[in-house]
Amino acid sequence: MRPLLEIFVACLVSIAAQAADPDGKQLFHQKCAMCHGPVGMGTGLLARRMKPEVAQLEMRDDLSAAYVERAARIGIINMPPITRGDVTDAQLASIAQYLSRGKP
């Protein structure tokens, strides 16, 4: 049986690794899906201007990471800017990579 201190340190290292490398999908669902999920207001508003099947950001294949980051920080039409207090640069980069499927 490993000593308790060794287990504690392993847990801290795991938590730090997760914090340093946030999961874009998880962050999207925590920070963005309330508006850009299947029943979100952002999805509804986008569905008025584009095909409803691509109004959900997760369903699109035409987003670049740079576009997602810029749109989030400056806002677009009805979407207010997302501040660094709401979503850090690292979190936004992870979300952008997730939504862009790795396209810069």
Mean pLDDT: 85
CATH architecture: Orthogonal Bundle
* Termini separation: 46 Å
- Whole-number radius of gyration? 17 Å
Q: Overall 3D geometry?
A: globular
List the helices and strands in order: HHHHHH
Low-confidence stretches: 11-20
The CATH homologous superfamily corresponds to Cytochrome c-like domain
Q: How many helices in DSSP terms?
A: 6
Number of strand segments: 0
Helix/strand class: mainly alpha
By CATH, the topology is: Cytochrome Bc1 Complex, Chain D, domain 2
Largest β-sheet summary? none
Q: What quaternary form is this?
A: single chain
Q: What is the C-level CATH assignment?
A: Mainly Alpha
Approximate helicity band: 55-70%
Beta-strand residue fraction: under 5%
Total number of distinct structural domains: 1
SSE blueprint:
Blueprint: H1 4-20, H2 24-31, H3 33-36, H4 41-49, H5 65-74, H6 89-100
Helix pairs in contact: 2-6, 5-6
Short description:
The protein is mostly helical.
Give a quick set of tags describing it.
104 residues; mainly alpha; globular
Detailed description of the structure:
The protein has a single domain, classed as Cytochrome Bc1 Complex, Chain D, domain 2 (Orthogonal Bundle). It has 6 helices and no strands. The longest helix is centred in the N-terminal third of the chain and has 17 residues. The protein is globular, with a radius of gyration of 17 Å.
